[in-house]
Amino acid sequence: MMDRSLVFAAILFGLLLLMPFLLPLFGSEYLIGLIIKAMLLAIAAISLDLLIGHGGMVSLGHAAFVGVGAYATAIGLENGIENILLLLVIALAVTCFVALVTGSLALRTSGVYFLMITLAFGQMTYFTLTSLAAYGGDDGLTLWSLATLFGSNIVQSGSGLYFLVLGTLFATWWGVFQISRSRFGRVLRAARDNPERAEVMGYAVTRYRLIAYLIAAMIAGVSGLLLVQHAEFVSPALATWQRSGDLIVVVVLGGLGSRNGAILGAFFIVIIEEVLGSFVHEWRLIYGPVLVLMVLFAKGGIADLFVSKDAKGRAA
Questions:
Q1: Residue 74 falls inside a structural domain
Q2: Greater confidence, 298 or 170?
Q3: Which of 78, 135, 147, 222 sits CB 3.0–4.6 Å from 84 for a disulfide?
Q4: How far apart are CA 86 and CA 19, in angstroms?
């Protein structure tokens, strides 16, 4: 019997694939930008879910890697590097280096101490970005040129950018899915559930966790690159702990360790913010209770509404 979560994912990605062709027919091109925003949030959330859902590492500084990837891209553009593939290499290299330094220190701790040290590193990153006076400082930086693909502007806007973000989202989803099914993923979950037993069995738990930390950071860095391409603007606000908190909300709301939870959580958050914000100025007064109700009555996350417990168990 086919896994329901895979069927749902196929339907979800199929709908996203059709959106650029369907929405303009109804004069709703604005919604394309909204979907891109949700997909970018989903990419970062999937990377965090690799840490929390599969590794049991709750990070309150994950948005820092989004900011690092975004600034690495923006600084590259400001210095005349416009090829998106070269910018991708730069963003991956910089985020990997930052993650290697911070992860090597953070993973010496666990539990609430890991949470606090990632918060500290995230704030350090934020204040480092605000100190970049040559690149806007606190005010951020508006970009007058965007990345190109071998000189073509196809990835700068419109359907080209949409399909680039969608392709990245699918690659991220598929990559994390394959990791979860691999020996590496099984060891990571074993270390999450009982690290002492995993160590006794001969697995280097810290090494596995560090690799997962690096992978998650680089995925977040890629989302930062695409965010620059979409927003044409970069700001230190991308790296604040509040943004990291938003990512945790997306992951928990969607469903920890599920295949589709981060995507569903991202779309739910973006849509509800847009809908409430269009009716009520102080929309967060309604947004908060809605989240509380979701947590109380959908304890397995939004993904639990679409995937049976058995299928969810096989997905893990």
A1: yes
A2: 170
A3: 147
A4: 29
The whole-angstrom distance between residue 41's C-alpha and the CA centroid of its chain comes to: 5
Q: Give the Cα separation of 271 and 19 in Å (integer).
A: 15
- How remote is the C-alpha of 134 from its chain's centroid? 28
pLDDT digits (tens, 9 = 90+) for 291-311: 787 777 766 778 777 665 444
Of 61, 135, 132, which is closest to residue 98 (Cα–Cα)? Answer: 61
- Give 272-308 as a DSSP string: HHHHHHHH-TTTHHHHHHHHHHHHHH-TT-GGGGTS-
Q: Which residues contact 61 (CB under 8 A, 6 or more apart)?
A: 102, 118, 119, 120, 121, 122, 123, 125, 241, 244
Number of domains in the chain: 1
Take residue 58 and report the two structure tokens written for it.
Answer: 């709750």
Distance between CA atoms of 115 and 107, rounded to whole angstroms? 10
Look-up: residue for tokens 């000189």? 151
Structure tokens given for 165: 């973000």
Beta strands in 157-264 (DSSP E): 233-234
Q: Which tens digit of pLDDT belongs to each residue from 59-98?
A: 999 999 999 999 999 999 999 899 999 999 999 999 999 9
Asked if the structure places residue 47 within a domain, the reply is yes
Rounded Cα distance, 165 and 169, in Å: 6
Helix (H, G, I), strand (E, B) or coil at 256: coil
Q: In terms of residue numbers, what domain contains 124?
A: 30-239
Secondary structure E strands in 129-203? 141-142
**13 is a domain residue:** no
From residue 51, how far is each of 166, 210, 256, 301 by CA, in Å? 22, 10, 10, 17
pLDDT confidence of residue 314: 45
Q: Tokens at residue 65, please?
A: 């890697």
Q: Is the dihedral of CA 211, 193, 173, 129 positive or negative?
A: negative
Highest mean pLDDT among 30-39, 41-50, 259-268: 41-50
Distance CA 46, CA 53 (A): 10
Hey, is 155 helix, strand or coil? Answer: coil
